[in-house]
Amino acid sequence: MKTPVVSWQCGARTFRIGARPLVMGILNVTPDSFSDGGRHATTEAAVRRGLEMAAEGADIIDVGGESTRPGAEPVPETEEMARVIPVIRALAKAFTGGAPALSVDTRKAVTADAALGAGAVIVNDVTALAGDPEMVGTVRRHGAGAVLMHMKGEPATMQRAPHYDDVTAEVSDYLAGRLAALQAAGLDPAALALDPGIGFGKTADHNLKMLAGLPALVALGRPVVVGVSRKKFIGVITGRDPDARMAGSLAAAVWSAFQGAGVWRVHDVKESVDAARMMAALREEMVEWTG
Question: Are 144 and 11 in contact (CB under 8 A)?
């Protein structure tokens, strides 16, 4: 069966997501992110890594200046902007034509506004645009794309015994509700993508159930973004430390794509691009073989 194509409108960029998942590279300009905190904490190091990601084939580069790992505390917006805006501005200047799109990973409207003005075209918000009352207007004014993520609680407390009666149904219902609310607020649904928030207020078992139940989220008709890269549940299953979880991360990402996910948010860009290209080739061959 041919893979359906879903369009995602992000400013002047239109992504058509089909057989090959898009690869969104994670660029944390932070000292304390769970896997790569401190590696790209300066503007120079972050820009250098962004250029590497582009050369490795990233479709999107997601720049964040505030860690949302379990237990993380909020960062003042002035500090967050000081971290991410120079990086986004420099990468936007360097990228032309078919180069990667830029995304800002933030829950603060002031940061989002500055980032979109500096060259980003996507807001990746762990609160699904609900955490800051000015965020919806900011996204609408810029005509930006947005990723709506599910998170149970706040980063500082979200992993303290999270409970669901049915994680797949509850996450899907929440994101369906956000889609409806944001459309009513004047956002174009074509600009919105959905993220189940793997690891955000979820145990290892919740994460596995959510990945197995992704078709319920895909059925909402918008691109699904999955971020499994190096996360704790992969360590629980494999016994590996974060830097040794690439194989487990790729396995989970490939599984998610066969369940309909269209965007992978990853640390290991080069390897993920190879996996996505291989998936696309196999899917095309399957279509030919099945007629």
Answer: yes
Tokens of 163: 């409970």
| pLDDT tens-digit series, residues 195-239 | 999 999 999 999 999 999 999 999 999 999 999 999 999 999 999
Q: What are the structural domain ranges in the chain?
A: 6-290
Calculate the average pLDDT of the chain. 92
| 234-288 confidence digits (pLDDT tens) | 999 999 999 999 999 999 999 999 999 999 999 999 999 999 999 999 988 876 6
The pLDDT confidence band at residue 37, using thresholds 50, 70 and 90, is low
Q: Which of 83, 152, 222, 265 is catalytic?
A: 265
* CATH label, 6-290, candidates 3.40.30.10, 3.20.20.20, 3.40.50.300, 3.40.190.10: 3.20.20.20
**46: Cβ–Cβ under 8 A, 6 or more apart, which residues?**
27, 29, 40, 63, 87
Report the alpha-carbon distance of residue 248 to residue 254 in Å, rounded.
Answer: 10
Task: Supply the Cα-derived Rg of the chain in whole angstroms.
Answer: 18
283 included as an active-site residue: no
How many CB atoms sit inside 10 A of residue 6's CB? 18
The catalytically annotated residue of 108, 231, 232, 245 is 231
Taking only the tens place, the pLDDT of each residue in 94-115 is 998 778 999 999 999 999 999 9
Active site residue 202: no
Check if the beta carbon of residue 10 is closer than 8 Å to that of residue 59. no
Report d(CA 120, CA 112) in Å as an integer.
9
How many CB atoms are located within 10 Å of the residue 42 CB?
14
